[in-house]
Amino acid sequence: MIRAVTFDVGECLVDESREYGTWADWLGVPRHTFSAMFGAVIAQGRDYRETFQVFRPGFDLNKEREVRAAAGQAESFGEENLYPDVRPALAALRGAGLWLGIAGNQTVRAGRILRELFAADVDLIGTSDDWGASKPDPAFFTRLAEAVPFAPEEILYVGDRLDNDIRPAVTAGMKTALVRRGPWGTIQQTNPEATRLPHLRIDSLTELPDGLAAFNAKA
Fold it and tell me: What is the rounded average pLDDT of the residues 14-38?
């Protein structure tokens, strides 16, 4: 049975449209041009960070984050950037007695924001900066498994990406749910693995309570 549900952050809980728009502004590139190139890079199966290299060769994302922060334009998100199904889904899952967590590739700054937004709603908030390992590195999911008080096979990891979320979580022995939204969820939805690997495929997080109830009833 699934006893714990853990969530990715970007394009799972947080709509990153604003954030990528501000990166386009920072680079001095029209937002639609940046978005088009971003999608092309993802569709080719390349690392999304290569998008920045197209517009500024040698671009160092970590360094530029610091430069933006020093200029008073640090990456940020808030309640207004959450997908509208996030709060109802967390409340319903909590009401069903499930243990909840948030774990994604995020900076220390993003981790602080997540704790401000969700400290009262979930049992765990962990980031790649906290753990010194980034998805899809197996070490990330090892740290997640260590932090959750249930066996890996009792943990559901919810994400929008096959490469960063679903595939490595399955390899780690976890159950998975693939949410179809955002650039990766949209581009990768026709990949055969999008049908074969996830234990659940959803269009909204509010589908999780019923989906989990049905899954656990069969279990």
Answer: 97
* Listed residue (24, 4, 51, 8) closest to 167, CA to CA: 8
DSSP state of 57: T
Task: Return phi, psi of residue 83, to 5°.
Answer: -65, 145
Q: pLDDT band at residue 219, thresholds of 50, 70 and 90? A: confident
Do 160 and 135 form a contact (C-beta atoms < 8 A)? Answer: no
How far apart (Å, rounded) are the C-alpha atoms in residues 6 and 144? 9
Token pair belonging to 102: 């948030």
Contact by Cβ (8 Å): 139, 121: no
Contact 193, 178 (CB under 8 A): no
Structure tokens at 25: 């502004």
| Averaged pLDDT for residues 179-185 | 96
Using an 8 Å Cβ cutoff, are 153 and 170 in contact?
A: no
Rg (CA), the chain: 17
- pLDDT tens-digit readout, 52-82: 999 999 999 999 999 999 999 998 999 999 9
Collapsing DSSP states into helix, strand and coil, what is residue 188?
helix
